Amino acid sequence: MPVHLIISKRCMARVTGSNNMKLLTKNTIWFLLIMLPLLAAGGIYLYHQFDKELKKEMDEELVNDQIQWLIYFNSIPDSSPVFRITTPEFSIHPAQGPADAQPFLKTIMQYQEVEHKEVPYRQLEQVIRIRERFYTLTIRKSLIEKDDLIKNIALVMALAFIGLLLFTILVNRLISRSIWRPFYQSLDKMEKLQLEQMHHLSFPDTSVTEFNRLNEVLLNATTRIYHDFVIMKELTEDAAHEMQTPLAIAQNRLELLLQDEALQPAQLRSIAQTHEALQRLSHLNHSLLFMAKIGNKQFVPAGNISIKAVLQKHLRLFEELIRDKDLLVSTDFSGDLSLLLHPILADTLISNLLGNAIKYNYPKGTITIQLTDQLFSICNTSEYPPIPATQLFQRFKKNASNLENSNGLGLAIVKKITDTNHLKIYYIHKEKEHHFIIRPDRHHH
């Protein structure tokens, strides 16, 4: 599988596997959880209030109709026959007394020919007295039009509530983004901040007291960190410089002692072991000084470097080591990565990665090198387990404890070079293969 596809899949897995939630999204969800029940309760309350008011209006109409009918019945001549009228909406027929003081109002269901089904009616019923005779007066009014009106009102209310909710969410999100913009700007600055650039850090003033306080705390914290970093860096550089002369003198003295024929074999072995330890200490001292020079930007690039040319040069230099381990080196130079890099840093970058691929490989293993216009990758087989992410580029973290000539600074130097020259380095372990990929940082192009 091509290296760039591996990187893309890993990045996608990190994104899709994340369970984190943005603050604005979480704020919106909580807003919805609070607002939806309130709007639902408000809608139900208003629906019942409309229903109640419409029934009240209907009852007032029925009572008014009843009064008109009573006026009419009392105005007709005494010789009129006994009343007996029955219609779906009005009926009157003789009844036993006594008369009711107040009409009785209720909702009933009655079949309606037009609708071909039972529909709700509001009914007024009362026993009345007309010239010493008692009658049951019943007046009904269909509620189906009122129900349709209530449904239409409920629909309009629901649409209005939904529109209001969506508008509120949109406005809340826009306002929140505007209010939280200084926070995200500060966060973006902190994400891109490098240790050597902490003294250049600054935050703009905002109209929010809490954000100003946060920026002040961040600025104070980074200032203290940078101050401690400068002290430690100066201590390391001074110590490394001071150790150079005594180390050189001690090595020279030991080399002279090794040439003394009067010494016993046991003494020679002890001196040789001491000389070897001093060599490792000298190499460590040189590496620390080299890293300090990189951090101080003492290696200023004069122009672009062809990584293909550097690779070919070091493959020739490491040819004997590759042959001693009987390693199979496979190269795929489909392009040439051109980087704005100092020649010494380019040599160190390639030699450290290629040296590790040889050093940590097993006999008759493989090394696969891929080079395109976009990236450089080197992959080697190895019996060693994957390097933990927390130790990958840390100083003095050896990738294999049984390699006595390793000082644990190789990958740390590689990381220092990439960080100070706008490069990105990725590490992937898959099926006993260690992949290192380097590509330009797109944020700086």
What features would you describe in this structure?
The structure is a single chain. By secondary structure, the protein is an alpha+beta fold. Helices cover 54% and strands 18% of the residues. It is built from 9 helices and 12 strands. A hairpin with a 2-residue loop joins strand 4 (117-130) and strand 5 (133-142). Helix 4 packs antiparallel against helix 5 (265-295). This is histidine kinase. The chain crosses the membrane at residues 29-48, 149-171. Keywords: Kinase, Membrane, Phosphoprotein, Transferase, Transmembrane, Transmembrane helix. It catalyses: ATP + protein L-histidine = ADP + protein N-phospho-L-histidine.
Mean pLDDT: 79
Strand content: 15-25%
Amount of helix: 40-55%
**How many helices does DSSP assign?**
9
- By helix and strand content, what is the structural category? alpha+beta
* Topology pattern, helix = H, strand = E: HHEEEEEHHHEHHEEHEEHEE
Q: How many strand units?
A: 12
Largest sheet: 5 strands, antiparallel
Unreliable runs: 1-18, 400-405
Total tally of structural domains: 3
Strand order in space, largest sheet:
1-2-5-4-3
Assembly category: single chain
How far is the N terminus from the C terminus? 27 Å
Shape: rod-shaped
Radius of gyration: 45 Å
Catalytic activity: ATP + protein L-histidine = ADP + protein N-phospho-L-histidine
Domain Histidine kinase: 238-419
GO molecular function: phosphorelay sensor kinase activity
EC number: 2.7.13.3
